[in-house]
Design goal:
Helices cover 10% and strands 55% of the residues. A hairpin with a 2-residue loop joins strand 3 and strand 4.
């Protein structure tokens, strides 16, 4: 039943995807100055009786690996469409996405995946709304690393190449939101568990390297060479309640979740890796305020069952704490936006583990528009504070054509074996891309 519901949502998206690409191809044949007027006319034509058909996102990325001896290029094609309608207190959304991943070299592959986006029915009252169906549930306040964000389904198909919202997908959920003045109660139940979207097993972005015996977060494990992988996906995803308050110069929230992590944890046994998704209680707190010309954010969580593997390859779960402190500001009241975060993670273990039982990192982003807003320079980074771990993502974007972006970007990695930068240190990538939203 679980798989039937999930695949029914995916198959229902086929018509939407095909229609959107037909329009995109037609628009590409027009002069640039005509694209905007045609897309607006097309949207008006497809808005009938309160129902709107929209192309949410189209994207093409292509580029070479700079220092990988075996893999040559990486290609990514993406399209997402939706139909939205409203009548009185009721509204609905139908949506889908199509993603194609391609890699040349040894190993090489091409994979196309159809997936649902938001597909829900919602009722709105004066102070309450109830939503049933696949939907985006993004809890938390900080950027890049959010310990409270456990409800959403992780998109790890390209590792950490995108910003946090791009690495999250919709989940099947029943949601109740109630507003009472400055307070909001948000209760979510995930009746069907759908695991994270993972890369192709031969992808450079896979967290498992069974050719060389490596695993992201653990490092070199010779026992992984040639191991088989089995997925355990069944049951519900759990649920949670979040209480938030806004106003009076201080926003804050408390949350309690009994949740399964969508990202798999690989339990090791001889010649076999089992991808499991353990349940954990997660108690979270969050704050946001504006002081000294900056916005300050904080998230902290306690988890009852963080998975680890001992050096004798025994699987166990332990308590864990996560803390993220962040700030966002515009230096000198300019158009430049700066975001900085310090993240700390600690698992309370009494025996040595293959996993990192603690880590500390600084993450950030600097964004600067120039040339009267026609260009945008952006720089994201992750830097380890306890171990050598570096990820750099400079990006230059041309935004001079309405609804279109053309960009040149790089992804650069460096670090010790257990870190993100160390695992991908031979996968530096240069990317040329186009993105449009109509």
């Amino acid at each position: 039943m679980q798989y039937a519901v999930i695949w029914a949502s995916k198959l229902a998206c086929v018509f939407l995807i095909q229609a959107s690409f037909s329009f995109a191809i037609a628009a590409d044949d027009l002069p640039v100055e005509d694209v905007t007027s045609v897309t607006k006319s097309w949207e008006n034509t497809n808005s009938i009786a309160g129902v709107n058909f929209k192309v949410d996102d189209l994207r093409i990325e292509f580029g070479p690996f700079a220092d990988n001896a075996n893999i040559s290029t990486d290609t990514y094609l993406h399209g997402a469409v939706s139909v939205k309608g409203k009548s009185g207190a009721w509204e609905f959304v139908l949506g889908g996405r199509l993603d194609t991943y391609a890699q040349t070299g040894t190993p090489g592959f091409v994979r196309t995946q159809l997936d649902y986006t938001e597909n829900y029915l919602r009722w709105r009252g004066d102070n309450t709304r109830i939503t049933a169906g696949t939907q985006n549930v993004l809890w938390g306040r900080v950027d890049e690393i959010s310990p409270i964000d456990r409800m959403s389904r992780s998109d790890l198909s390209r590792s950490f190449l995108g910003r946090l919202p791009e690495r999250r997908r919709a989940v099947p959920a029943l949601r109740l939101e109630h507003f009472a003045g400055d307070y909001k109660v948000d209760a979510v139940w995930l009746p069907i568990f759908d695991a994270a979207v993972m890369p192709h097993q031969s992808s450079a972005w896979s967290p498992l390297d069974r050719i060389n015996g490596r695993m992201l977060g653990i490092g070199n494990v010779p026992a992984l060479i040639g191991a088989q992988v089995r997925e355990e996906v069944h049951g519900s995803g759990g649920g949670g309640v979040r209480l938030t308050r806004t106003g009076a110069g201080l926003d804050y929230g408390l949350s309690l979740q009994r949740i399964r992590q969508s990202q798999p944890y690989y339990q090791m046994s001889p010649a076999l890796l089992t991808a499991i998704h353990p349940f954990s209680w997660v108690l979270g707190g969050e704050l946001e305020t504006q002081k000294a010309g900056a916005t300050w954010r904080m998230e902290a969580t306690w988890s009852s069952d963080a998975p680890v593997t001992t050096r004798s390859f025994q699987y166990r779960t332990e308590q864990a704490l996560d803390l993220v402190l962040g700030t966002e500001f515009f230096p000198g009241d300019s158009d430049t936006r700066v975001t900085l975060q310090v993240a700390a993670h600690k698992i309370f273990v009494s025996t040595p583990t293959l996993d990192r039982s603690q880590f500390y990192a600084l993450t950030g982003e600097v964004e600067h528009p120039f040339a009267q807003g026609r260009w945008r320079a952006n720089f994201r980074f992750i830097s380890g504070l306890d171990k050598h771990d570096v990820y750099l993502n400079p990006k230059l974007t041309y935004t001079g054509i309405d609804q279109h972006e053309f960009f040149l970007a790089a992804h650069v990695f460096s670090g010790s074996p257990q870190t993100l930068g160390g695992y991908y240190k031979h996968d530096d990538l240069i990317v040329l891309g186009w993105q449009a939203k109509f």
